[in-house]
Amino acid sequence: MDPDELLDSGSLLPLTAAHHTGLINSVPDQFGQLNADGMFPSEGLDTPYVRIDIDDGVITALPVTEGGRPSSIARHGKGKGVIFEIPNVSHEDSVLAADIRSWMAYARRTRTPDDALINKVETRHRRNRLKFSITLEVMKISSLKGRIVDGANQLIYDLNKVFELQQRVVYFDLDDPTFDVPAALEEVLSGTEEELVNDTMTGLEVRIAPEFYSKIIRHPSVEKYFAGTPAMLQLLNQQREKSANSFRRVIEISGCTIREYRARVKLWGTEGTTRLLDAKEGVSYPTGTIESHVTYAAPPLDIRELDGATFSDEDLIHFSEEVMKHGAGLEWKYQMNSLPIWRKPRLTTKWVWGPQP
Fold first, then answer.
1. Which of 118-127, 165-174, 314-323 has the highest mean pLDDT?
2. Are 324 and 280 part of one and the same domain?
3. Which CATH number does the domain housing residue 200 bear?
4. How many structural domains is the chain composed of?
5. 222, 195: one domain
6. What does the radius of gyration of the chain's CA atoms come to, in whole angstroms?
7. In terms of domains, do 177 and 126 share one?
């Protein structure tokens, strides 16, 4: 029997696929510092492809238009462009007949059985929603680093190769007490501004591992930088800000906001956990630039979703279900068609704790 017929007959859960999708996407996305900081906002697409135009990597200036003369005309898709295919991430979960029977038995024992049943369903969705949230954070931080990987650490795109760039690297020889950290930060800041053609920035931020962060703030050159200033108290009494269910340290040195990034995840097909930033690794980027980072969201791979409507972050995860053979239960399929892209990799800088080779 068709799943919709079973649902209409009341034999299974009293929820349509649209109801399930709404439940899934209403679950708060609480994992990941980049997500909590609003990095890589979603932008809906109506196809699984997106073209990023690179007109020499900049937005061009406009000529003066004297009164009465024709205006300059915007050119779309005329310069060099790169086409990205949005990857599909899908995950299946089996809800067995015994699970449904248990949920319904529990619901009948409550004063609000309908709400109780929906809560049981939402609990299962919440667990699967978290898997996609973790996957997105993996893709976002790897995009910021220049090599987008999925939840199995498989390479999706090498942005430096796609944009034909050589990644800029700055080394911090923090084991040398004579190393000048503020000078290195100035090098990063000035190098970023040098690449900032026809664009603006409001600041510079970096995400570094906890060990890297601790080594920087305890370096003699940093202590000297803060000595005799009101900010010395900030250095001595490091406060942690709460974000994305974690506590991280933040400090500003020489115009650079340094943010501690701590995240361990279990990648698909691996034993143990993996750090998203190694102990001696970091990446910096300018803030306040024009359209530097975005998560492109494409329509689901579902024949029932061919109406041509643009997808949005409100339905980032698509849900469908199918009755298992012999009525053994339901097969739930979740899919996400998203790609976080740092559109201006020229503006990022890789930080390495160690001497310059």
1. 165-174
2. no
3. 3.30.1930
4. 2
5. yes
6. 25
7. no
At residue 55, what is the residue type?
D
Model pTM score: 0.86
Alpha-carbon distance of 203 to 80, in angstroms, equals: 29
Cβ-count burial 102-120 (b if 16+ within 10 Å, e if not): ebbeebeeeeeeeebbbeb
Around 173, how many Cα atoms within 13 Å sit in the side-chain half-sphere?
8
Range scoring the smallest mean pLDDT among 118-132, 239-253, 305-319: 305-319
The owner of tokens 């503006």 is 347
Q: 100-111: per-residue pLDDT in tens?
A: 999 999 999 999
The answer on 258 and 335 residing in a single domain is no
User: What is d(CA 114, CA 351) in angstroms, rounded to the nearest whole number?
Assistant: 53
Q: Which domain holds residue 288?
A: 168-293+344-353
Q: What's the residue count for the chain?
A: 357
Bridge partners, 238 (sequence order): none
Q: What is the pLDDT of residues 166-204, one digit of tens each?
A: 999 999 999 999 999 999 999 999 999 999 877 889 999
- 3-class secondary structure for 1-57? CCHHHHHHCCCCCCCCHHHHHHHHHHCCCCCCHHHHCCCCCEEECCCCEEEEEECCC
Structure tokens at 107: 């619901």
**pLDDT tens-digit series, residues 255-307:** 999 999 998 898 888 888 999 999 999 999 999 998 899 999 988 888 776 55
34/146 same-domain check: yes
Cβ neighbours of residue 20 closer than 8 Å, sequence gap 6 or more: 121, 125, 319, 321, 332
Tell me how far apart the alpha carbons of residues 258 and 189 are, in angstroms, rounded to a whole number: 12
Query: What amino acid occupies position 76?
Result: H
For 59, list phi and psi in degrees, rounded to 5. -95, 130
Q: Residue 126: name the closest of 18, 3, 30, 262 by CA.
A: 30
pLDDT given for residue 55 in this prediction: 59
CB 296 within 8 A of CB 43: yes
Tell me how far apart the alpha carbons of residues 307 and 347 are, in angstroms, rounded to a whole number: 38
* 3: confidence class by pLDDT, cuts 50, 70, 90: very low
In a domain, 62, yes or no: no
